[in-house]
Specification:
Length: 397
């Protein structure tokens, strides 16, 4: 069992997540592809008080990122959309590892709701004959209560069911609307469509998680995946016995983590720059909240799903990463009409050894976040540490 200090574990994770220096993946579409290949997936979310989560997650690691670069990667068939633990962009070369879930859903396993086979057949005929289509391209029925998919339109539900079964893929996006087409017309001919064996699938989950996160527990590898616990445990133990992975213990942490000797040797020696990152609530680093609490001693919850009267920090608070530690959070809103990035609440939760440097770095990052959100200025409305707020505002000028 390899032992790591808490600081070493944090550094390892930050490096593997590509948050250790300003521009770890390069630029343009090539940088987008290197980023998603390292992280394994990028979660998609619809909330738009600032730029949507998938765009924000790329921007955090690719300072020059432009929305069109992701669109182009999708049109070039280098990335695709599917369900990871949630809706996500994935590298196209990982397509075959989505086949087990596609086949399970097509065989009757429920995803969100019972499919309407008649409507699904009608939708397939329409797309096969007329080409790619959006949900809005189908006639709307009389109004009924909204369902999970954001509307009651049967064609929309059918599209999503056909998508999750693998019959349709998202060809591209029109704005934020998905444009669906037949999988056979979207999937590049060279992509491997052989369904992986259980062993291959478990190995994929394990190695992808270790590559992206540095260390991971059994539960973290299997996060939100049903029916794989026993098989995943057997695979981990087999890889451990073969020396392909190693066990890791982190000081004052009861968990057994897994990593590879190669990753430990390469990443632990990398320096983490003392820079500020404002992470999306759906960023790969923070999406597993229990993991963040145990490794970084940072308790985080997104409060947009919490009743307003019960929110402690704000609707869409972003975790603030400074070097390899979370030091607070801030609640932003892009006032696009007035071109102002509003920081409705800035909360500093740790004593800072160099508050002036932090203020300078935070100010610079907020200015960049404003530009990314088509804003020209930043306004801090509330902060629990007035000296920090004053220092940040001073660096705006």
């Amino acid at each position: 069992m390899i032992e790591l200090s808490a600081a070493q574990a944090r550094r390892l994770v930050v490096v593997c997540q590509g948050l250790h220096r300003a521009n770890p993946f390069g630029r343009s579409e090539a940088g987008v592809l290197r980023c998603i290949d390292q992280l394994g997936y990028i979660q998609i979310d619809t909330i738009s008080v600032i730029k949507r989560a998938h765009l924000h997650t790329f921007w955090t690691r690719l300072p020059s990122f432009q929305d069109g670069e992701l669109d182009q990667a999708q049109r070039d068939r280098k990335v695709f959309e599917y369900w990871s633990h949630a809706a996500a962009y994935l590298p196209m070369h990982d397509f075959r590892y989505c086949l087990p879930y596609m086949h399970a859903i097509a065989s009757g396993q429920k995803h969100w709701r019972k499919p309407d086979k008649k409507m699904m057949a009608s939708v397939m005929r329409r797309i096969r004959q007329d080409g790619p289509a959006r949900a809005r391209d189908f006639d709307s029925p009389p109004k009924r209560p909204a369902d999970f998919w954001g509307g009651s339109k049967p064609a929309k539900v059918a599209l999503e069911q056909l998508f999750i079964e693998g019959e349709l893929m998202v060809s591209h996006r029109d704005g934020f609307q998905k444009v669906f087409d037949l999988t056979e017309r979207v999937l590049p001919a060279e992509v491997d469509v052989t369904k992986p064996s259980s062993e291959e699938f478990y190995r994929y989950l394990i190695l992808r998680m270790i590559r992206a996160q540095g260390i991971a527990t059994e539960a973290e590898v299997g996060y939100l995946r049903k029916g794989i616990k026993a098989g995943l445990r057997d695979q981990l133990q087999g890889m451990l016995a073969d020396g392909e992975i190693v066990g890791v213990q982190v000081e004052e942490n009861p968990n057994v983590y897994y990593s590879s000797q190669e990753i430990l040797d390469s990443a632990l020696s990398v320096r983490v720059a003392k820079k500020v990152h404002l992470l999306s609530p759906f960023d790969n680093l923070v999406i597993q909240r229990k993991r963040v609490s145990q490794l970084f001693r940072f308790d985080y919850q997104i409060e947009c799903y919490v009743a307003e009267s019960k929110r402690q920090h704000g609707y869409f608070c972003l975790p603030i990463l400074f070097g390899d530690q979370f030091v607070g959070r801030l609640d932003p809103k892009a006032d696009r009409q007035n071109r102002v990035l509003l920081v409705r609440n800035l909360v500093i939760e740790k004593t800072l050894a160099d508050p002036e440097r932090f203020a300078r770095e935070l100010s610079a990052k907020l200015n960049l976040l404003a530009v990314f959100n088509d804003c020209e200025t930043v306004s801090i409305e509330q902060c629990n540490v007035k000296k920090i707020a004053a220092a940040v505002k001073r660096h705006f000028n």
